[in-house]
Amino acid sequence: MKARGWLIVAELSAVLALVLLPGSSFLAVVPMVERDWGISHSQSGLIMAAYQAGYILSVLVLLPLTDRVDARYVVTASAGVSAGASLLFALSARGLFSAMVLRAVAGAGLGGVYMPGLRLVSEQYRSSGRGRAVGVYVAAFVLGNGLSFGATGSLAAVTTWRAACLVVAAVSALAVGLATLVPRGRRPEGATGALGRRTASGWLGLGVDWPTMLVIIAYSAHMWEMYGLRSWMAPYVNSVLAAQGQSGPTAASRAALLTSASVLLGAAATGAAGWFSDRWGRTATASVIMVASAAATLAFGWLAAAPAGALLGVGLLSSLTVNADSPIFSTGVTEMVDSSTLGRAMAVQTFLGYAAATASPALFGWILDAVGGRVGWGVAFSSMGVVALAGPLALWQLRRMAASRRMCQGRR
Fold first, then answer.
1. Looking at the chain, which terminus has fewer C-beta neighbours within 10 angstroms, N or C?
2. Domains along the chain?
C-alpha cells in the first residue's frame, strides 16, 4: 500500500505540475501584454481574476461529482481542457474580453485537476501520515507555478510573449497522457474523513459544521494573501528594476526569473510544513507560518527604494511562508468531515478560498491605479497582509474547541 500510494502521489504531482506550466504565463508577461494591448493595471487584474473565477465555477460542479464518479476521469478530462485553453490564449487572445474568457476556461481545467487529485492523494493515507503526502502534492502545485514564471520569462526574453506562452502550453498537454496512467487507488480503513458522521446540513446549510468552517476561513485568508502576492510580485519587481534604468524586456524577464526562483523555494517549504504538521499539529504549525507570512507581506511593498538585499530577503521570506501552509489546510478539511460528504466539503473550501483568490489580485490592481507610485505598491501589499491575519485568529478559536482534535489524531 505504501509503495502504491506514493506511486499515485508521484504521478498526480507530475500531472498537476504540467497543468500549471502555463498557469502563471500571463503573470510573467503582464508588462509586455499591457504595452501590446494598451490595458491598465486594473484590467490586468481582471484577467488574473478570470482564471480564479473559472476555477471556482468548475469545482462547484466537479468536486461534488467525485463523491459518485472516479476522480481519475475528472482529472484526465480537465487536464485536456486546461491545455487547450492555454494554447488558444497564446494563439488568439487579442484583448481584455478574449483573454478573460480563455483564462477562465484554463482555470476551470485546473479546478478539475488540483482538488480532485488532492482527494485521490488523501484517500491513500491515514491521518497520521496524510500531511506529508498532501505536502508533496501541494509542493507540485508550487513547483508548477514557479516553473511557469521561469520558463515563460526566459522564453519571452528571446522571443515574443505569445511564442513563450505557446511553448509552455504545448508542453502542458503531456499531462493528459500521464493522467491516463494513474492507477486506481485502494482506500485504507480510516483513510478519509473524520471519526463519526457530521450533520448533512452543517453551518448555514453548507454541509460543514462551524469548526470545519474555521479551517476554511483560515484557508481563505491564506488564499487572499498568496494570490495577491503571487499575481503581482513579478510586476512589482519589474517596476523596481525599470526604476533602476533597466530596459522593458530585460526588466520583465529578470522579474519573472526572480519570481520563479522565490516560488520554487516555496515548494520545499510546502513539503516541510506538511511533515511538521503531522508531528506538531495542524493549527499550531499553520498559525506560526501565517503570522510570519503576514509580517513579510506587510513590509514587502514598502521596500522599492530599499537596498536590494532587504527587498530580496523579505521577498524570499514572504514566498517561503505564503505557500507553506497550503497542505495543512487541505489535509485538515479531509480530517474534519466524513468521507461520504468530502467532495461537498472540499467544494465549499475551494469556492470560498478561490473567491478570495479571485478578488485579491483585482483589488490589488485597483489600489495601484487609485493610489499610484511607490505608495500604491506599499498599500496594495499591506492590504494582503492585513487580511492574512484573519487566519491565525480563526485557528486560535478552533484550538479552543474539542472538535479540533479530529485533526491529526488529536494533535491540533
1. N
2. 2-181+205-410 (1.20.1250.20)
